[in-house]
Design brief:
2 helices; about 40% helix; about 90 residues; alpha+beta
Length: about 90
């Protein structure tokens, strides 16, 4: 499991839920505080579905990819031998 990709997916999923539920309310009033008009808007609702889909996809990919952790002991390191050419010169 690749935890970095999984965490990014989890954050994207949570941001999608926050974007879906975020609501801005505005109220217009008369001079003495009587309510004239009230409206509620969700300005980030269009971004919620793509963020949720991206988050779920990243979480699946992060869970499927194995983490990259390799340990190499000093005794396991193989140094290739140096090859040398032997040239013989004959005098005729």
């Amino acid at each position: 499991m690749n935890s970095g990709i999984f965490v990014i997916g989890l954050i994207a999923l949570l941001l999608g839920f926050i974007a879906y539920g975020y609501t801005v309310t505005s109220t217009d009033t008369y001079f003495f505080g009587a309510v004239k008009d009230s409206s509620a808007k969700q300005p980030y609702k269009d971004f919620a579905a793509p963020l949720m889909i991206l988050g779920i996809a990243l979480m699946i990919v992060g869970a499927a990819i194995p983490s990259v952790t390799t340990t190499t002991k000093k005794s396991e390191i193989v140094v290739p031998e140096r090859r040398t050419k032997t040239v013989t010169v004959s005098e005729d």
